[in-house]
Amino acid sequence: MDLCKKRLKSDCEELLNRFQQTDSVRFEVFSRFWREIKFSHIFYGTVAHKRRTFSRLALDTAYCYLLPPFSFQIRVGGLYLLYSLYHCQTASPPEQIRLALKDWDDVRKFEKDAVDAQHFDVVYILQQLVFCKAFHFTAMPTVLIFKRSRNPEKSALCEQFLERACRPQELINTELLEEMSNIHETYEKMKTSAISRAEMQADTSVTLVRKDCISQLRSIVLDFYKWQQNKDSVDVDSKNEGTSSQQECSKRAEMLASIKSKAFGEAAESSKSRRHRPVEMDSSSNDPEPAPTSLHARITKPSLKTRTRETVQISGDVWKEAASTTQINRLVRLEPAAISKGNPKKRFKQC
Q1: CA distances, 103 to each of 8, 121, 161 (Å)
Q2: C-alpha–C-alpha distance, residues 274 and 132, integer Å
Q3: Residue 126 has what pLDDT?
Q4: 117: region left, alpha or beta (phi > 0 left; psi from -120 to 50 alpha)
Q5: Using CB atoms within 10 A of its CB, is residue 300 exposed (0-12), middle (13-18) or buried (19+)?
Q6: pLDDT tens digits for range 209-234
Q7: How far does Cα 236 stand from its chain's mean position?
Q8: Where are the domains of the chain?
Q9: What pLDDT band is residue 246 in, cutting at 50, 70 and 90?
Q10: CA 56, 61, 66, 67: dihedral to nearest 10 degrees?
Q11: Contact 33/18 with Cβ under 8 angstroms?
């Protein structure tokens, strides 16, 4: 099931990515994408004895998108995905959604946030799952069994689905800053009254409280918010400029390829055996010769046979004399062989 797990996770991320692009939390929008890609057909290819195992795998894969650190919209999509997979599975009786007790508080808080935001689709789907007894409350999110691999591989989370860091903006608001400034002033008055004026006059470098504590806290939160906004705008611009930069790189590569092809096409390559030899120029002829078209012009030389005929010149008499000497030498060399043939060795007769 490892191969099925990877492909199932990629399909779930594709469905949730389409749902995220709509910026909606309505179940009607999610069901439209569910029907368009025919997501319910994933259960039709399983064998009879593996239906329950595959249903368990599909529900566990979709269950992780219901919990943090994913954004609210992705968690809503994960809830809709669990609801659809639970009712479309082919296992009978249906496989339940394994819900750990430590994650139940996150689910209840998620429901409360949906009620406060008046997203009643989310509340209705969650209540339907509870009513159908689709959740199986367990102590651990996974079944504790003996495994050979003690360090299982953890799949990486999709960065697009993660929730943005907005806790500083939610905690540091105007009401909290006013209350902190009042407490800070009261603390400063109490501290100054506790210390005598004589000690204060003796040591003027003593600082009892930090004066600009509230203003610095407010400026830090504002700087973080501005940095977050600028980062989002830079990410969007980089995505838009990615295609243009790829086109520029492709044009530059084509231009370099054309320059190289022209350069290699004009230069004629010489043979490897003659590359180390210098170009021989005939200085005897006074007629001007045309300049070579290229530096690697091929140099043609006469063959060995023609050069031998030109250098070695033997007259007719000398040639005859040389031929007669070679004949005599041959006769002298063949004379012992002829003598050996005339006097054959005696062989012993066999009895």
Answers
A1: 23, 21, 19
A2: 89
A3: 95
A4: alpha
A5: exposed
A6: 777 788 888 888 778 777 777 766 66
A7: 20
A8: 2-147+156-163, 170-202+209-253
A9: low
A10: 110
A11: yes
